[in-house]
Specification:
Helices cover 83% and strands 0% of the residues. It is an all-alpha fold. It has one domain.
């Protein structure tokens, strides 16, 4: 059960230390994915594509709003991804999957 507390603490850290724009982008991507998901069986695929979309939006945000050099930032981002701890990736995946599942259930209940 120790690993569940590690995941929960990482999720808590992500949600409490991220800025509001990042949290809003996460919510919009996850909610949009949940409303577009056709069946609950595609939750894993939808979560993976949502994580990729979140990474791309973060990259575009850094380029446009942060004034970063595109090629240098892409290299830096790739190196940071290679050094990413698996626990952080699992925490992001769980967070996205839960919000996507809630949005899909809400859409299913509203469309009856």
């Amino acid at each position: 059960m120790h690993f569940l507390m590690d995941i929960w603490n990482t999720i808590h850290t992500i949600l409490t230390t991220s800025d509001l724009i990042t949290l809003a982008v996460m919510a919009l991507i996850a909610l949009g994915a949940g409303f577009m998901m056709q069946s609950f069986g595609s939750i894993v695929t939808t979560t993976v594509f949502s994580l990729i979309a979140f990474a791309l939006v973060g990259y575009v945000r850094a380029i446009t709003m942060g004034g970063q050099n595109a090629s240098a930032f892409a290299t830096k981002d790739w190196q940071m991804f290679q050094e990413l701890h698996m626990l952080t990736l699992v925490a992001y995946a769980v967070t996205f999957a839960v919000v996507i599942a809630i949005a899909h259930v809400a859409r299913s209940l509203l469309m009856r």
